[in-house]
Amino acid sequence: MKGLSIAFIMTAVTIFIADNAKAQSKNPLEWMVGVWKIQSPSGIMLEEWKITDDSTLTGRSIFVRNNADTVVQENIKLSKRNGEWYYIPTVANQNDAQPVPFKIIFSKGMEFIAENPAHDFPQRIAYRRVQSQLFASIEGRKNGKFNKQNFDYLRSGE
For all residues of the chain together, what is the average pLDDT? Predict the structure, then answer.
């Protein structure tokens, strides 16, 4: 009986350590994963996110017109560099098609805010998930005036 108790305890400890290591290796931004959409009169905007590894998510924003024409708006990486997370979009017709890093300055639960004060517009990007909705916004100064655009996505299929 004593040998059975020790074996049980050892098994439980091994499972706990394995589960704890697995939890620590998870990507803290995995709540972004999925396909998110906004339906508008001119078409559907989709944002798709996938986990690449424990320190990178890849995403892309596309616009679909008339259920046929698909235009990639931007490719995005959420990446951890030197212990800091960055939101890094690449837009074909902006910034010479070069990636622009926005440092994540706030992250808690299913929300983050990223900033790049040196960028022309936007200077701030925010995401927040509430159940099957993903709220995104871009904001900053544009032509000397404050501007903000909201993007209210629903999980695709809902």
Answer: 87
pTM for this prediction: 0.82
pLDDT at 105 > cutoff 60: yes
Q: Is the predicted pLDDT of residue 129 greater than 90, yes or no?
A: yes
Decide if pLDDT at 134 tops 80. yes
DSSP output for 106-120: EEETTEEEEE-TTSS
Query: What is the CA angle 31-17-4, rounded to 5?
Result: 135
Give the separation between CA 9 and CA 22, rounded to whole angstroms: 20
Q: Rounded CA gap, 131 and 91, in Å?
A: 29
User: What tokens does 40 get?
Assistant: 């508008």
- Are 82 and 88 in contact by the 8 Å Cβ rule? The answer is no
Token pair in block for residue 143: 């032509």
Question: How would DSSP label each residue in 2-34?
Answer: HHHHHHHHHHHHHHHHHHHHHHHHS-TTGGG-E
